[in-house]
Structure formats: structure tokens, C-alpha cells
């Protein structure tokens, strides 16, 4: 493919939250996720990928080749079944390789390769992040070229708890219990401010296997930059992508270990004597002289 990736990419994404809950933990009453030992806030990779998926689906309408496999209310096995129907492969008969089918309704041999290729071609998130497609009709597994770490706050966060009231009840029985006062109480958790940092990696060899192209890469950068713009909610407060730092290598395998590139980025508070409440309270610097000439620095 002429637009196949020929270079490795590593990137850092910085985003912040103000008066919101960036990623609630359902096992802790939806409190903001936190490192119990250090107090630093956490946002899972799954949460960030969800926002990328939502942006792509919203912009391109969920149509192939930019359909989304893991989306709300999706039944994944049915989606895999539809892939084989589109390919004209009948999984109830003997397999196309002439061998007796071991399990009816389940692909085998070359059929799995065809199913996996079809899924990569039609679903953006599969050829980007990979997927386990071995359930149901079985289309194997896809190792995605793009991987993202958990995001961690630069400084420890403070989790605030707020009491809230609702001036209504849901049922007549609840109204009777309230003796005419329909107020109900609730809780809301917010982080006053937090700047989060996540790391990402794009493997060119794996991209060539899934068909992840230069156009797909451009969409990834766009979605990471704008992923909060159409994902607003009262619970999440004000969230914004503040900076996307991309390191473009000159080869598929890369020119330097990734940690040496990430170490060139320093994030420091401008005033340690007051609480951090805004992005301007941080200074971000990059030691450009420590980056090899073969690696191109891109800032968005």
C-alpha cells in the first residue's frame, strides 16, 4: 500500500480537568481514580480509547472503512457473523479449505484470515487498537499498532465530595415517603484541577499487518486533539487536550529507545507555594538538543 506507515511514532498527550471527574471508579462509588500510595489521579487507557472511538464515529458516521467495532449496545459476535455473511462464507458447511468443519458456525483455516482481514478493513478501531475476535464465529485476534498507557496526573489530586439535591422524586411511593417534600439527596465528586499525562506508541510493522494507514494516523492525531470537544458532560467538568507531542522516527523500527525521548519533556510547576488550578500554573519544556536529528519533533 502506498499510504502504509513507514515510520515509528511515539507520543505524549497532556490533558486537564477543572471541577470535574475525569474517570470515575465504579468499584469506589464513582470516585475519581487515584493511586492510593501517591495520591496521583489516574485515567484508564480504555477511557481514552473510548473518546477516540466516539470522535471517529461522530465525524464519519460509523460507515466502513471507519466503522467502530466496540461501541455502545454493540453485540460483538453478531458483528463477526455479519463479516462472514458479507464474505459469502457459510460456516454451517464444510470449510473452504476442503476440510470437515470441526465446529459448526465457527471459522477455521484460511477463513479466519479472511475474516480478520475483513474486520481490519472495515473497522477503524480494530486496525488501530486491535481486538479479540476469537469469540463466536471466530476471526482470530488482531494486535493493534496503536497502544496508549494509563494517564497519570502530574501532581497529586484532591477529590472533593459535594452534596446535591433533586427537587423531584421518581415514583408516587417515594413522594409519600417524603411527606410532601420531594427533595432527594445525592453525591457528586470532582477534582478542582488536574493535569494528566499519557504515553502512546505507533508500531509501523503492526500497522502494515492491520492496514493502519497514513490517513488513519492523521485521524488519530485529530481525534486525540479534539476528543473532549464533543464529549462534554456536567460530571466531567471542563476537560481539554492541552498538548500533543509526537516523535516521528525515520525508520519502521525506530531510531532511539522511547524512554530517552520521553525524558526530554519536563513538566514543572511555576509556583510551588500555591495550589495548582490552571494549565498556566505549569511550564512545559523540551530538551530539543537531546533529540537525535533523525527524529522529528511535532507539537500540536
UniProtKB/TrEMBL annotation:
GO BP terms, alphabetized: maintenance of CRISPR repeat elements
InterPro entries: Cas7_Csh2/Csh2, CRISPR-assoc_prot_Cas7/Csd2
CDD domains: Cas7_I-C (cd09689)
Name of the featured protein: Type I-C CRISPR-associated protein Cas7/Csd2
Domain of life: Bacteria
One Pfam family of this chain: Cas_Cas7
